[in-house]
Amino acid sequence: MSHGNTRHPFKVRCPTATKPRDAVALRGIADDSAGRSLTSHASSAANRQRSSSARASLLRLILLFVSFAASAQSGMSKAELTQLYTAAGFPIVNDQPVDACGTPARPRVTFVDINGDRRPEALFIDSNARCYGPSGLYFAVLTHESQRWRSVTHGAGEIQAQPTRTAGWLDMRIVEVNCSRLHRYDGVAYAADVDCAGRPLARATNSDAPPATSPAKPGAMMRISSAEETAAFQSAGFSRRGTDWRSACDDPGTASYTPGKIEHVTDLNGDGLPEAVITEGGTYCYGHTGQGYWLVSAQSNGAWKLVTNGVGIPEFLALRGAANWPDISVGGPGFCFPVERWNGSSYVLNRWEYEGKRCTPPQ
């Protein structure tokens, strides 16, 4: 397992035994007797001695993270670094990571094994009093699977490792202003058992979900981080105005308007990468149909790309075109809808159907 930390993707910083300056540091973690997993510091002198020894041993571990300019010297390509930062909530703009407020960011990145599989997870720590609410702190923990980094928890506040584990993952305590809660790994992500007042929360079951280390099956719902959602909207040409995502149509505020939203995320073509369907509503832009749609796809380099868009209600069919992309029936008013097929470079009209049967298109 390798361990390192950095404050900026362009500057290599060797790991040190000193405590990170960031108040949001993942506190209370030290190598166990096998030197492979993490536990929290206890208050006893014996535990403090062990943790001191563990910190010293970290000095001998190599730094995983290097600058984009020198990325060829590390195990990560520039594309993987970009995808990692983006998934953590720091999309790369002009070769510079930016935070949720769009300002340049210098998060500290530490690689450490949290689930005992001898492979490092990535811990991001950042502070910005103007961007991260009352605490001014932000964290993100990501794991690497199916050749991509994905977030297992992120948010404002301070994250603290606990001595207990769930599903092999260290439990985490997340401390926000006037709220301190234990979060446990549920097979997909970290989730709290109670709300800030201590009331139990209903937790979704993941009994039907694939193992966290397995790629999602085509058609299964997938999760993406808030940073990936931002990248998806931007690839579709949307821009944020206040809390809304808006397309270039720019509805003036009619009563029928509904802002852009991600309807669902799934792997449509079976390549292991997510696609997202974005919709926006309103008769001002989309006539009697009342809806526009955008299909965007994640790329292997961490970016998102617009695949197709149009006016109507997209339905993905069982029949498929080139590269295993499904045919799309574009619904709307009437009883005969166009069906488009991927030809290797774009979706083009293939036929007209209604409820699975060929039909004569309207004149």
| C-alpha end-to-end distance | 65 Å
Percentage of helical residues? 10-25%
Number of domains: 2
Q: Helix/strand-derived class?
A: mainly beta
Structure annotation, total helices? 4
Strand content: 35-45%
Shape: globular
Strand order of the largest sheet: 1-6-7-8-9
Low-confidence stretches: 1-74, 203-218
**Kindly state the mean pLDDT as a whole number?**
76
Count the E strands: 24
Describe the sheet with the most strands: 5 strands, antiparallel
Order of helices and strands: EEEHHEEEEEEEEEEHEEEEHEEEEEEE
Determine Rg (CA atoms, Å): 23 Å
Description:
The protein has 363 residues and is mainly beta. It has 2 domains: 188 residues, no CATH class; 133 residues, no CATH class. The chain contains 4 helices and 24 strands. A 5-stranded antiparallel beta sheet has the order 1-6-7-8-9, covered by helices on one side. A 5-stranded antiparallel beta sheet has the order 20-21-22-23-24, with no helix packed on it. The longest helix is centred in the N-terminal third of the chain and has 14 residues. The radius of gyration is 23 Å and the shape is globular. The termini are far apart. The N terminus is likely disordered.
Short overview:
The protein is mainly beta and about 375 residues long.
Notable features of this structure?
mainly beta, 2 domains, disordered N terminus, 363 residues, five-stranded antiparallel β-sheet
Tell me the layout of helices and strands:
Elements (H helix, E strand, L loop, with lengths): L4 E2 L23 E2 L6 E2 L5 H14 L19 H11 L3 E2 L2 E2 L10 E5 L8 E7 L9 E9 L2 E9 L1 E9 L2 E8 L2 E7 L4 E3 L33 H10 L3 E3 L2 E3 L11 E9 L8 E7 L1 H4 L4 E8 L5 E8 L1 E8 L5 E6 L5 E6 L4 E8 L2 E2 L5
Antiparallel strand pairs: 1-6, 2-3, 4-5, 6-7, 7-8, 8-9, 10-11, 11-12, 12-13, 14-15, 16-17, 17-18, 18-19, 20-21, 21-22, 22-23, 23-24
